[in-house]
């Protein structure tokens, strides 16, 4: 029963995430962009989700920037990227921004669940 | 043409323009009507989507229970709506769920709809049908698509190839390989991409193709690189060393770069001495991915002496990735040659900034 | 029986034939555009951008953004471009000697550090002071150079780029997310022959904009920009699409266009001694490619991809239109060798004469038409039939062209779904020819005058940037 913050501007994917993760019993909060998500985290009251899933490609603030800012807030929450590109450079860049893992779109929902469980367990 | 004749022509022109204006007025009216119709049908579409939505959610949750019945198109226009919802799912998910969605698409008759349209006399309709069958990942469509791959015009063969690339049925491989040679120039690129999407499964056929055909080795080499197939490495290395066509050699070097295995270093070092500059540039670029210090002396040689700017850039990039290489670059930061100096400084900066 | 009477009559008839010819050509273009749009929309139904995105053969490209005194908006614009959907591209911002804090804004927003950039010997450009890279964004390069104008800045950008294609954009441009994919699609499908691609430019005034993206297309409230919406639709949907269909495109907008670096460098890049550098580059490429007998295509993409702010005040509009006219004439003059030479094919026999007679010299001839009618009427020598014909052609034809363009917009894109919006556009299309058209006519005449007086420079601009069509 964890609180998961999903930052995703595409409605369909947000819904997919919500469905699969709520099925596992987690509580899912969806924010459409970086600034909204950061405002949510800072509050008041400040929120501390157990996991953050974030899309890389978003208008305005991209996923890497969001991750950097989350880390700058001092949060050590496990951070999962959803990336549409399959190139290795982007995965490296994601890790450098402070993320813990990534998933390429399209993704296997089972793989998503497995990764979420693994990172939640690690906390 | 006397001036007296003009007024009559003018009158005709004026008449013509008024007639046209009336026509435009009428068309505008028609426009307003179509807008109205679109608004109405859009509202209807939203309602039908909402109707099918719970079934789609159940599908995403991988529940059982009569999904085929719940998603079966009932009213006119439902088929397109359900299809669109399924295609949206395909864009998002992979794995076993995708298989399920694909079978569902066949069960509820969506595939059948498009298979019928594959024999339409209008080429646009056939192309669209092929595209939709690919988007639905329908295995049943593979034989028809293979037939289209042989018989259709080049523009449509490309669509068929793309569809086969999405469906990922290995029986399509021979047909796709044949199409690779049949499509001239850049039209072969979608076929190459489709083949590349098969991954390792395509490699044995590709390697065989490499040996039998005369003209396509460069293209096949490119695909092997995209697939990042280790088993192709010996063949690619051999061609890099021996092939007479410089395009093929360059493509092999590029492929070796993508495979990025240290066994490729010796042939690439030889590639640095190739008479054709594109081969040298690709070899230098590839060596940059190998992270093998033994390549540094030759890379430095290329950086200092090569006449082609791109070879020097790639050599400098490659050197900057290794500690030994960076030491070599440091020595050139104040070199009299401006290109050497700027390259050394630039690559050292980029290396120091972080990977 | 004063000869003046028959002389006037003769002039009037000649002008009438001219008007007929002009409008017939415009109608022909609209027809070609309609055919092209229909074919394009059909092709879209089985084209797949996701595959294009993942295709390893998708060529890399550099987005060149020349910036001059854009401190207020540069950060948002650059971020907007960085977030475009394309697998492999770099962004090169060229700070053309800005006197405001443009460079400082970039430095702090993207954590720039000075980093040398080795450049292949290329097009002559003004001295580069320094180049910068970002610590947080790997594919951003910022070049700081002495002020040299937009063309010069673009040339510096071309020199610094290391990709086979470049995309020249204005610093305040608003691009759609898939803009690069769409504009590169012709290149991907036919890399051997496509050497340049232009895209539609739409009016951003009045639209809801956030993060350098248009959220909701809306119409401007003020009249001047509203007329320009119709004008741009006519020019792009009704004009350039048609030219592209017959491979006779002479101009690609400087606000958004993709070019092959190889060929752009081969013609020596953008010329710095003209204000019409965007059209000049395309004409130069045509000349070179035809001379070398290369099989090539220069294409225009009908998909909506680019939005830009248009002048809302008379002063800025005046300056802009005069500059455009001057640029057009400068380019036409420079490439006058294209006229009627068989080697240039459709360019020589249709495109160039079209631009010369109808766009370049058109304002003068049209102005002459108005003057002649007024004079005839004042002298009491105005033939009723002639008067009516003139009125019809001047007003009605214009209306017709506008309405046809709006029809094309409605058929293909429907970017303005609100009924009120389309009604307003129709109204503007109808009344454009009793006021706005005459206004631009006058401004274009002034532009011709400027050209003849060999005037230089960019004139008055509110944003102090390079924004132009």
Give a concise summary:
The complex is a heterotrimer of chains A (123), B (355) and C (469). Chain A has 123 residues and is an alpha/beta fold.
Labels describing this entry:
heterotrimer, B: 355 residues, mainly alpha, Leucine-rich Repeat Variant, 74% helix, 0% strand, extended, C: 469 residues, alpha/beta, ten-stranded mixed β-sheet, two-stranded antiparallel ribbon, 15 helices, 12 strands, 52% helix, disordered C terminus
> What name does the CATH topology of one domain in chain B carry?
Leucine-rich Repeat Variant
The CATH H-level homologous superfamily of one domain in chain B: Leucine-rich Repeat Variant
Named CATH topology of chain A: Rossmann fold
Distance between the termini of chain B: 78 Å
Oligomer: heterotrimer
Structure description:
- The complex is a heterotrimer of chains A (123), B (355) and C (469).
- Chain A is an alpha/beta fold and 123 residues long.
- Chain A has a single domain, classed as Rossmann fold.
- Helix content of chain A is 46%, strand content 20%.
- Among the domains of chain B are: 86 residues, Leucine-rich Repeat Variant (Alpha Horseshoe); 99 residues, Leucine-rich Repeat Variant (Alpha Horseshoe), CATH 1.25.10.10; 62 residues, no CATH class.
- Chain B is extended and about 75 Å long.
- Chain C has 15 helices and 12 strands.
- In chain C, the strands form 2 sheets. In chain C, strands 3-4-5-2-1-6-11-8-12-7 form a 10-stranded mixed beta sheet, sandwiched between helices. Chain C has a two-stranded antiparallel sheet with strand order 9-10.
- Chain C is globular and about 75 Å long.
- The C terminus of chain C is likely disordered.
- Chains in contact: A-B, A-C, B-C.
- The interface between B and C is large, with 47 and 49 residues.
Describe the secondary-structure layout.
The complex is a heterotrimer of chains A (123), B (355) and C (469).
Chain A: E1 3-7, H1 11-23, E2 27-31, H2 34-42, E3 51-55, H3 63-72, E4 79-83, H4 88-97, E5 101-104, H5 109-122
Parallel strand pairs in A: 1-2, 1-3, 3-4, 4-5
Chain B: H1 6-60, H2 67-71, H3 78-92, H4 96-107, H5 110-117, H6 123-135, H7 142-151, H8 154-167, H9 173-182, H10 188-197, H11 203-212, H12 217-227, H13 233-242, H14 246-259, H15 265-271, H16 277-290, H17 296-305, H18 309-320, H19 323-330, H20 338-353
Helix pairs in contact in B: 1-3, 3-4, 5-6, 6-8, 7-8, 8-10, 9-10, 10-12, 11-12, 12-14, 13-14, 13-15, 14-16, 15-16, 16-18, 17-18, 18-19, 18-20
Chain C: H1 3-44, H2 49-54, E1 61-67, H3 74-82, E2 89-96, H4 102-110, E3 112-114, E4 128-134, E5 140-145, H5 150-160, E6 165-169, E7 174-175, H6 179-189, E8 194-203, E9 208-210, E10 213-216, H7 223-245, E11 256-260, H8 261-266, H9 277-291, E12 297-308, H10 314-334, H11 346-360, H12 362-378, H13 384-412, H14 419-431, H15 436-452
Parallel strand pairs in C: 1-2, 1-6, 2-5, 8-12
Antiparallel strand pairs in C: 3-4, 4-5, 6-11, 7-12, 8-11, 9-10
Helix pairs in contact in C: 1-7, 1-12, 1-13, 7-13, 7-14, 9-10, 10-11, 10-15, 12-15, 13-14
